[in-house]
């Protein structure tokens, strides 16, 4: 995470075309953005003065903890299922969906059928 100091709004607009800032403080002349080495170098070449924001970097990289009372979901985000929970739901629900709506699950063998190949189910 870096604070990127800019000289004018055009720098921000051009940056936003390829990288999404997390915060923009026009009044203070800086924005906050997550970057990799390539983006860091590209921003420097574009004229940004960059400062690593260690507090935000540490916060971003810190392992997420379960919230008090949270028993499932992504740690800190109980409304989002983990991959494992989503897979378990699919394994549990798929048989009942196939039984109750036999035409709902079309076997496409790993491909999305062309619209002309799809059959409507009612």
What is the gist of this entry?
By secondary structure, this protein is an alpha+beta fold. The chain has helices at about 10-15, 35-45, 55-60, 85-100; strands at about 1-5, 25, 30-35, 50.
Write the layout of secondary structure elements.
Blueprint: E1 2-5, H1 9-16, E2 23-25, E3 30-33, H2 37-45, E4 49-52, H3 54-61, H4 83-100
Antiparallel strand pairs: 1-3, 1-4, 2-3
Attribute tags:
122 residues; single chain; four-stranded antiparallel beta sheet; alpha+beta
Notes on the protein architecture:
This protein has helices spanning 9-16, 37-45, 54-61, 83-100, and strands at residues 2-5, 23-25, 30-33, 49-52. A 4-stranded antiparallel β-sheet has the order 2-3-1-4. The model has no long low-confidence stretch (mean pLDDT 85). The longest helix has 18 residues, at 83-100. It has 4 helices and 4 strands. It has a domain at 2-61. The relative contact order is 0.11.
Compute the number of strand runs.
4
* Widest beta sheet: strand line-up: 2-3-1-4
Relative strand content: 5-15%
Unreliable runs? none
Q: For the CA atoms, what is the radius of gyration?
A: 23 Å
Tally of helical segments? 4
Mean pLDDT: 85
Shape category:
elongated
Q: From the helix content, strand content and strand pairing, which structural class follows? A: alpha+beta
Helix-strand string: EHEEHEHH
**Biggest beta sheet summary:** 4 strands, antiparallel
Helix % is 25-40%
N- and C-termini, Cα separation:
50 Å
């Amino acid at each position: 995470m870096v604070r990127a100091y800019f000289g004018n709004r055009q720098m921000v607009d051009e940056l936003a075309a390829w990288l999404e800032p997390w915060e923009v403080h026009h009044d203070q002349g800086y924005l906050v953005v997550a970057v990799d080495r390539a983006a860091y170098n590209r921003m420097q070449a574009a004229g940004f003065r960059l400062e690593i924001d260690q507090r935000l970097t540490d916060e971003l990289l810190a392992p997420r903890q379960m919230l008090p009372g949270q028993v499932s979901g992504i740690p800190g985000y109980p409304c989002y299922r983990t991959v494992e929970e989503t897979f378990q739901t699919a394994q549990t629900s798929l048989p009942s969906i196939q039984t109750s709506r036999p035409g709902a699950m079309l076997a496409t063998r790993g491909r999305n059928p062309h619209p002309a190949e799809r059959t409507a189910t009612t």
